Amino acid sequence: MYYKTEIPVIWDTSFKHFNYKDDPIEGLQQDIWRAQGYNHDRTYGAMYGYPDDMPQWVEDVSKYLNLKNCGYVFYKMKTLDIMPIHVDHYKKYCEVFDVEYEQVYRAVIFLEDWQSGHYFEINKTAIVNWSAGDTIVWQGDVPHSASNIGTVDRYTLQITGVI
Prior knowledge:
This protein is mainly β. The protein has a single domain (2-162), classed as Jelly Rolls (Sandwich), CATH 2.60.120. It has helices at 28-35, 57-64, 91-97; strands spanning 2-6, 21-22, 46-49, 68-77, 82-86, 105-110, 118-122, 125-127, 134-139, 144-148, 154-162. The strands form 2 sheets. The chain has a 7-stranded antiparallel β-sheet, covered by helices on one side. It has a 4-stranded antiparallel β-sheet with strand order 5-10-7-8, with no helix packed on it. The chain is globular, with a radius of gyration of 15 Å.
């Protein structure tokens, strides 16, 4: 199950200038995607997160979602970056905060207005035409995917936490 919400845009565009790092998926998940035909050599997006310094406003954003013990990751998808359908495992988060998988929430916040070619899917529902501040929140093992087949970079903030 997931829900949509909207939070006020309290951020600037500094996220566009972070030192994003490619974080290719490896191991079992990559094997599964390759077996499904995802054989491209592109990364699945670039991330900026722990241990990198976060702007103060990320904590303010998480307060709108009533989340605590938050982990933050900025995600940048360039043209032709894709993240095929998957469920999040939260393994490290559960270890660090000593919580059960079922207690963990994930929020994806769209940092800019939707651009042609940007795509997000959750639980077999396509999400497009979003506005900056639109947010998708789910708990547990909800399948989701993302891609950018447009010509403008796609930026989101991913927050992981508990209520």
